[in-house]
Amino acid sequence: ILLSVLCTHAFLAADMHHRAQTKSLDNKLAPYENIRRSTELFVASVSGTRQWLMDRFGCTVHRLDTLVLATQYQTDDYAALEARALWLQERLGLKDEDMSKIIQRAPMILACKLDTNLKPKLKYLQKRLDLDDTDLRTVIKRNPNLLGLSIDYNIEPKLMYFQEQLCFNKTQVGKIICKQPTILTLNLETKLDQTTAWLQQRLDLSTEQVSKIIWKMPKLLYLSKSEKMEPNLIGFKKDSGAELRKIIMSLPQILVLSTQDKMEPTLQWLQHRLALENISELAVVVRKLPSLLSCSIQSNLEPTLDFCIEALGNEKDAITAIKKNPTILSRSLEKRLKPRLEEANEVGIVIDTDCLNR
Fold first, then answer.
1. What is the C-alpha to C-alpha distance for residues 36 and 46, in angstroms, rounded to an integer?
2. Which sign, positive or negative, has the C-alpha torsion 166, 171, 172, 177?
3. Of 99, 142, 170, 194, whose CB count within 10 A is highest?
4. pLDDT digits (tens, 9 = 90+) for 43-70
5. How many alpha carbons fall within 13 Å on the CB side of residue 309?
6. Mean per-residue pLDDT, 302-312
């Protein structure tokens, strides 16, 4: 009996020791088990998100990982995601392909809640920029990242800068943003303010003149000063400050155009086809009409010159007329020059240089 009791006691003691060791090991492994379960849930969530993006927006496989990791919406609640996407699409009147492009450019939109972000932000943008529904749709299509920006700390300070520093009114600011909505994603201090200050100092412009240039070409605000705008001005280094200022005020696109692909070929064509003997004569033509530099050689300059030669029956006379009045090359061939030639022929007017200049 005593031996039986001792054996039972030893067995119970060993069992208790084993349980204590197992419990201790379970306690040590518990955090790792939680991590494993969380990882499995995350992987399942990401996998589900990938499939939903493919099914809903036609996202390509090579873009899926970037889209998923760039967002905060890994979730199994696809009903909430679908509700946001559907509301935004209906609110802006977007086609399916437009909605897909927006989501692929700015996937963080799906992380924005309707009542606290999307709805109030669209309402603010429409009212603040004086936009109709069509303009609002255009702005979001061109720059969907606006929906992820803070109104108080990002958008509003920039809009106030346009009004207070550049003297634009509310409607004008809206039209500028409609043309180039990416402006609102630029840094106020290091980009917007510095670019306007550079334009004012480099070209010796008044605030009013800077505003006029930006109104014509808001794209200037996000161009590089050192890599784009300054190199484009080098070709005009022989012009005085007043002449350069006049040229840029007339055609701010000069600061945007490609020197190698656009301006150089156009200048070479003008010098060759108009028989300009030197750079000075070329400069005179360009100063008279800077917009020539933005005209297409193939679809504008060459056909118009050929028309003038044919109309006058003499190449030399046509070139002489264009040298005196380069605006002839900027006129619409189909809407102005050809109809007027037909009218002149019908009433028996002699076709000469005066006829072309009318």
1. 15
2. positive
3. 99
4. 345 566 667 777 777 766 566 566 555 5
5. 11
6. 87
